[in-house]
Design goal:
By secondary structure, this protein is an alpha+beta fold. It is 39% helix and 20% strand.
């Protein structure tokens, strides 16, 4: 109680434990064990985060000079958090459990009571509503045992375990909107959202993301391996006239040390499609080979 929460040692320990938990005790390379790792971030206002690690331990040379308060970030990589097991885990979890992004998202979706319905007040855009109505012809309702899916096609509520993963993907975004989280969030991170989506639904999901970025101040970060999805983001960004606010990146392997780097290819998006086209070329070659035989 006599130690300030701003004490460097307390702050460093909190950051290290959070990162160790989030990255499953792999903060530094398992291949280059003796090579230090660095996380360096500079804010627009000049605030600096410089974290240095060696053998999974944060070094004393690390610096965290942040003057602003941080808002929520949501990392969505698992549509199944709407199912009953996650509901029971969230409602029974204790505050001292270590932070992980899935637990954070699950706790927010399952536990926070609805207040002012910002979805009704702010998200009156008919295009967004149309996307939801085209994909989710019903609604997601919370009950004593978790979420249930309600649709006019069936008299009874459906368990979320029996609902397609595609609907779950849209429902998570809808719930974050309805509960007012995205209006106060800094980042929404979507990790390969196309995995559980039909190609046609990939297009609808992409337009939904573009429209969210227009109506909410949240920054949206997406990883994807789908040419359908990337092109949909590109074209819907142009359609809604925000293409100048979208940036594209790809990973490239460094030939001299075998490590990867992230390269900004905005304005050269064809470089993304070149990588994604490799499987199609291989299938074309296989088809030619079979035709010749």
């Amino acid at each position: 109680m006599n130690t300030s929460s701003n004490d460097d040692e307390v702050k460093d320990l909190a950051i290290q434990n959070l990162l160790l938990t989030e990255f499953s005790d792999n903060l530094t390379s398992e291949i280059y064990k003796e090579k230090p790792a660095t996380i360096l971030m500079e804010e627009d206002n000049g605030d600096l985060v410089s974290l240095e690690f060696l053998n999974n331990q944060m070094q004393m040379t690390s610096k965290i000079d942040i003057t602003r308060t941080f808002s929520n970030t949501f990392y969505v990589d698992n549509p199944f958090i709407l199912e009953g097991d996650y509901f029971l885990y969230s409602t029974n979890s204790l505050s001292y459990l270590p932070y992980k992004h899935r637990q954070h998202l699950s706790n927010c979706i399952h536990n926070v009571p609805g207040g002012i319905n910002y979805f009704d007040e702010v998200m009156q855009n008919k295009k967004v509503m149309q996307i939801f109505s085209n994909v989710i012809d019903g609604d997601v309702k919370i009950g004593p045992k978790g979420y249930r899916y309600h649709t006019n096609k069936f008299a009874e509520l459906l368990n979320m375990e029996n609902v397609s993963t595609g609907i779950k993907s849209f429902a998570i975004i809808k719930l974050l909107l309805e509960k007012g989280f995205l209006k106060d969030s800094e980042f929404l991170i979507l990790d390969e959202p196309e995995i559980h989506l039909h190609p046609e639904w990939q297009l609808r999901y992409a337009e939904l993301i573009v429209l969210l970025s227009i109506h909410y101040p949240v920054r949206i970060v997406i990883t994807s391996h789908s040419p359908y999805f990337v092109e949909a983001i590109e074209l819907y960004s142009k359609k809604h006239k925000i293409d100048d606010q979208v940036r594209y990146y790809k990973t490239e392997m460094e030939s001299f040390d075998g490590l990867s780097k992230i390269v900004d290819v905005t304005g050269q998006i064809e470089k993304l499609y070149e990588d994604m086209a490799i499987p199609f070329r291989k299938l074309a070659e296989l088809r030619e080979e079979l035709d010749e035989s």
